[in-house]
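Practice problem: predict the structure.
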Amino acid sequence: MIKQTELTRLQGSIAIASFTTGVAIACICLFCIEPKGEISNSAISIVSELLVLAGAILGVKTSYDVKFRKFEAELLSKADKEDNTL
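Answer:
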């Protein structure tokens, strides 16, 4: 079974690779390829999809971790209060 830290590092690596690839494609399309009148829709969609993927991987994972830790802390504090009253 994959440990939590390994999974987080893997997700971070995928997000960074997706973001870097998106920026690289954007730079190549903007600066290295001479425009023929318009930017190809496929280049724009690839960049946007890679950037959304990177944001989703980082944002959803971070949001889930924060909410889970907050919920865990609430449960532990309630359990401590119950132990003190007994």
